[in-house]
Design goal:
The chain is of the alpha/beta class. It has one domain: 3-Layer(aba) Sandwich (Udp-n-acetylmuramoylalanyl-d-glutamate--2,6- Diaminopimelate Ligase, Chain: A, domain 1), CATH 3.40.1390. Helices cover 43% and strands 19% of the residues. The protein contains 6 helices and 6 strands. A 6-stranded mixed sheet has the order 1-5-4-3-2-6, sandwiched between helices. Helix 3 runs parallel beside helix 4. The longest helix is centred in the C-terminal third of the chain and has 10 residues. The two termini are 22 Å apart.
Length: 123
C-alpha cells in the first residue's frame, strides 16, 4: 500500500513528506507505547499513534519506520515536525480514532505483525 492510499483511507492530512506519498508500506503498527514499537521493529511500516512528542519520531527512526500517522486529530509541536523532516519520516494526521484507523487499513489490505508471523509458521 502506498502512503497516498493510506492517506485517502484515513482521510488524513499530510504534515511532512508531501513529495514522498508514493512510498510503499508493507505492514502497520499501532501503539502509544514506544517500547512496544521498538520490539515491533519492522522496516517499511506505518506507525499509528496518539503520542505527539519528538520521542515518537526518534523511536520511528530507530525502528526504520517510514511514516507516522497521528490519530484522534492530535496537533504537533514544531519540534516534532522539524525532527521528522530532518529524519525523512513522513507525518500524517487523521481525525479518526486508532481502532477505526487500524480497521480501515486492515480492511484495505495492510497487515499487522501477527499476520506475518502466522504466515511464516504456516507457509
Amino acid at each position: 500500500m502506498t502512503l497516498n492510499q493510506a492517506k485517502e483511507i484515513l482521510e488524513a492530512k499530510v504534515i511532512t513528506g508531501l513529495d514522498n506519498l508514493e512510498t510503499e508500506v508493507k505492514i502497520g503498527c499501532a501503539s502509544d507505547l514506544m517500547s512496544d514499537v521498538l520490539i515491533f521493529n519492522k522496516p517499511e511500516s506505518l506507525l499509528l499513534t496518539g503520542l505527539t512528542n519528538p520521542q515518537v519520531v526518534r523511536t520511528a527512526e530507530m525502528a526504520d519506520i517510514k511514516a507516522i500517522c497521528f490519530v484522534r486529530g492530535k496537533t504537533l509541536d514544531e519540534k516534532t515536525i522539524e525532527l521528522a523532516k530532518d529524519k525523512n519520516i513522513i507525518l500524517l494526521m487523521t481525525h479518526l480514532p486508532m481502532f477505526e484507523s487500524c480497521g480501515r487499513l486492515y480492511k484495505k489490505g495492510l497487515v499487522g505483525l501477527g499476520y506475518l508471523d502466522i504466515n511464516k509458521k504456516n507457509g
